[in-house]
Amino acid sequence: MAAREDMPKTGPHDATDRPGALGMKRYQRTGRLRRFAWSRALPPAVVIVAVVVDLAWPPFNTFPLLATASVIAAPMFSLPGTIASGAVACLTGWLLSFRENAEVLSRANLIGFTTLVTLTVVAAFLNRMFAREREQLRTSRQVAEAVQRAMLPTVPERVPGLAMAGRYQAAQEEALIGGDLYGVHETPHGLRLVIGDVRGKGTQAVTLVNTLLGVFHAAALQMPDLPSVVRAAEIQVQDLKAREEDTPSEDFVTAVFVEILPDRSALRVANRGHPAPLLVQGGQVTALEPKEPSLPLGLGDLAGPVVPVDRYDLPPGATLVLFTDGIIEARDRTGVFFDPVPPLTRPLPPNPGAVLDAMLAALFRHTDELEDDAAALAVTRLPDEEESEGTSAAVRF
């Protein structure tokens, strides 16, 4: 590769087998089950502790402890599970009272049983409230993700000489529409791509996403070179910030603009403060770090008009991977950030979907839930024999 000699490379790395794209949801569900498995064991644990305490210290009144079982179960279990927790607590309290050879229906025991039944009813009511709120939040998340996906263009599977794939995953913590974006356009100047992340969420992010995608699709077709496309996007973002009174002046968009030459032999990259793309081939990963750092879009007035562009070779079978910071900012339980390089440093098929699936599978093994939206694009230069077949045609948007 005749690009950068100082770029870090990694060698082969043993990893688990790659699941298909349909396995992504399974990895997320597995992570959430791991996260809440211990908490779902609390209600039976409380009952067991109450029995142990009563056997070890009979004078101790365990009814208050048993009464918490159904309340703890309310936010985690279903309605039958919550009621069952309360019923088990009542049965346990009755058996413990009977074991003491005391009056089962004594005044103290009646108060305890009444407390258990009352809290079980309250827990059932709380369970229904929690269930409605969870359903509303789930619906909001689904709507936000559907709107986000509707804004993003469909990534064509093939264009002459190249195969492509895209992935988008909404964050689980919030129901706001995110600011992740990507676009792909085949032009006379080559295949042009953009991937970016708007600072913030909500309606302002939506406006910036629509603005950037619109100007990219127009400029990608009309502008003769990549710097002109970047400058057009910068002008549009600056204009939007000037016209929108409620848009904070510090709003910006990190983005990477890529132009793959018509003969597919090389690519040009203009990085505006975005995570560096990765070039994957034969178990090696090369980070395409910019030689000169540039400010994000929207902050161009603080820098000069020059748009730095780096050029890299694109060998047959190599895959270019672009992603937003929701991927590299994902943390595990100990706060360690996710590194996308290790899962890609092993032999992978020259298939963009397989490369993205390997990275995302490792991501969901690393973290239980994403705290920020994540988007990714992958472009693979087809081997020469596949290029010569001419089985794919350019896709128009």
From TrEMBL:
Q: Where is the composition biased (Basic and acidic residues)?
A: 1-17
The ranges of region (Disordered) come to: 1-21
PPM-type phosphatase domain sequence ranges: 162-381
Where do the TM regions start and end?
36-57, 77-98, 110-130
Q: Which UniProt keywords apply?
A: Hydrolase, Membrane, Transmembrane, Transmembrane helix
Which top-level group of life is the source organism from? Bacteria
InterPro entries the record matches: Bact_Sigma-Reg, PPM-type-like_dom_sf, PPM-type_phosphatase-like_dom
**Name by which UniProt lists this protein:** PP2C family protein-serine/threonine phosphatase
Source species of the chain: Streptomyces prasinosporus
